Amino acid sequence: MSSITPQIALIGLKGAGKTRLLYRICRISMPDQFQSTMEMTEVDGTFPDGRTVRYLDTPALTSLLSDFEPEKEVRNLLFLGRPDRILFVADARNLHRSIALFHQLTLLETSMVMAVVGLELDPEHTLDEAAMQQDLGCPVVCMAAEGTTDEARLLEALSGEPVVPPLQISVPKIERIRGEELGSTGLTQARLLRLCLPDAKPDGLTPEAAVKVREAARDLARNNPFLRNDLYLTDLTFTLAFRQLGRWKIPRPRGRRPNWGERIGFWAQRPITGVPVVLGLLALMYLFVGIFGAQTLVEWMQDYLFTPVLEPFFLWFTHLFPSDFMHKAVLDPDFGLVPTGLFLVLGIVFPVLLTYYIFIGFLETSGYFPRLSVLLDRLMRPLGLNGKGVMPLVMGFSCVTMALMTTRMLDSRKEKIIASFLLVLGLPCAPLLSTMFIILGQLPFAATLLLFGVLFSQIFLGGWLANKLVSGHQSELIMEIPPITLPDPRWVIKSAWMRTMQFMKEAVPLFLLASFLLFLLNEAGAIAWLEDASAHVVTRFWGLPAESVQVFMKTFIRRENGVAELARLKDGFTGNQLLITLLIMTFLMPCVNATFMLFKERGMRVALSIIGVVLVYTTLVGGAVNFGLRLLGVQW
């Protein structure tokens, strides 16, 4: 580590505003690119005295003790890279989790400075900055979410003498072992607790001390309520943070009239007004994503980009190669790379996903989702969850993989299993949901009502049954409610664009790979064999055409890939068959990434049980909807 150019790592929760804060204190414009969850961004700046400093902008961190892959990258930087200082960016709208994460970072025994961003957005409280500095043992700077009034104080704190905040979580058992059995090793309690974490390596210890450390870690795991040291230490940090926040919060003066944000926030979490708000937002999403994105933008790209520009180009390009195989692999209308790969992801998924991320981005940054948790708390109780369980389910409509990770925020093992089951059972992720609107837009509105009616009813039925079958306790709802704010449209659109482009970088190669694999399978006759082998279930029980087999095969690679393929083949399906196929694709299996995350979060036995139940349930639901529509004489 260079002593000439100190390195400062920015750490914070998702949405804390650390990246914007970094570019504010460096007084430079943010780049128009998305920061990968697996990469760090380096930005050079200067201190007030002219010294150069290098800032490391890390991906959002939920917990220092997490084993989620992107968070392990941040942890490796902190444990192995050892930056000179940490700038911890606390989200004033989510102080409880922020302060808990701060106390986890004190395990590193590294110099820290805390910046509390967005305090002016809380209409109820302000913070006692001096008390925070005294209790936390490091410089604390409370800052506005926008503006440049507090950057000088923050830079002064960063350039000052390094201050290492003390470890404040207490584990008497570990402290006793350190004092009685490991006193000669010079281990601090913070380092001993780090060695109790999963995958920790007792480097630098004698063999005898290493054996004692491993025994202490196993003993602590056997004798804490969570049976896992990382979860136990996380719980200690949340308890400590809750206790400290009560001392720091100062009520703002009363007597003023509530502003518009407070009124909307109040209405959004009261049943008599909150339910119409939810219904209104769903209607707006259908108009913006389902009509504008899935129909207007898709048709515009087809008429002004693909037909006049891209189709002639690829036709000319393939003529450069004399091979018939190459020509067929690229332009075959059923399995070619361009019609079934590139055109689907660019012409269908891209415009709809962009509009979806814009809509969800406004809701995320406005502070609405925590109020949705309060509103639906009583409704979630029969499902074995509290209102906090709404958050992973809502995130499941964006990305099931990330939603499975956020089940960690739930308080009991039972709630985590039920939430994971409901996510895998049938929540359409953003790419899948957005492309579904294209097909649903061409069916009667009753088909849309039926599809989402089945989706939501099976969430309640599945949750109710899981609540009866899964043992464990149900916790009470305790969470922070951030103030309602008006998002900056430019920031929301820019963020949505970057998220969409990051998705496209990952999805385009997979779409092309899936198309090419299906092309090879078709050339080898495997598709026809699979269609014959699955005929009893697919064509007889579900009532679908044989071509749906290739749709389901693409679904296993990426769910939106399957829906895009269905959109291409839709002319060979009846309205009933399109509806049944959409339902089966939603229930059938999560994508590969979500499947891996399920096994990682819930373990082999629970994950296999969930997948087995979902596969059987999918088969039965597909047949039930098929026979139900026939029995009622419904033909779309």
Q: Low-confidence runs (pLDDT<50, min 5 residues)?
A: 34-38
Count up the helices: 27
Q: What is the number of E strands?
A: 8
Assembly classification: single chain
- The radius of gyration is 27 Å
* CA-CA gap between termini: 67 Å
- What is the structural class? alpha/beta
Our count of domains comes out at: 3
Percent helix, as a range, is: 55-70%
Strand order, sheet with most strands: 2-3-1-4-5-7
Residue share in β-strands? 5-15%
Shape: globular
Please provide a written account of the structure.
This protein is of the alpha/beta class and 636 residues long. The protein has helices spanning 18-26, 69-81, 95-105, 129-136, 151-159, 172-180, 189-195, 207-222, 229-248, 260-268, 271-318, 324-331, 337-366, 368-375, 377-380, 390-396, 400-406, 413-426, 430-440, 445-469, 489-524, 526-533, 535-541, 548-557, 559-569, 575-588, 592-632; strands at 7-12, 41-46, 52-57, 85-91, 112-117, 125-127, 140-143, 249-251. The protein folds into 3 domains: 7-159, 3-Layer(aba) Sandwich (Rossmann fold), CATH 3.40.50.300; 172-246, no CATH class; 271-632, no CATH class. It is built from 27 helices and 8 strands.
